[in-house]
Design goal:
mainly alpha
């Protein structure tokens, strides 16, 4: 399975948050989503890419300062083989 692009990941968050202003440089903490929404988003990425994402990459402390682009790059790097 192919790893989703940044645009696809941003699109998923736009759908979940129902906010078309979200882009790759949006801070995850500033997006109006709850923890279940974040889990749904992470599961979607895992499903698309056929990988399992380490919980440490999306714990509360990690998400407080990260942009979507930061998170995407960390996940992509952590799941590359």
């Amino acid at each position: 399975m192919a790893f989703p692009t940044l645009d696809e990941v941003v699109g998923q968050l736009r759908e979940i948050a129902e906010d078309d202003t979200i882009d790759g440089d949006s801070k995850l903490a500033a997006i109006d989503v709850d923890s279940l929404d974040v889990l749904e988003w992470v599961f979607e990425i895992e499903s698309q890419a056929g990988v399992e994402i380490d919980d440490a990459l999306y714990d509360k402390a990690a998400l407080e300062t990260a942009t979507i682009r930061d998170f995407y790059e960390q996940v992509k790097a952590a799941t590359s083989t």
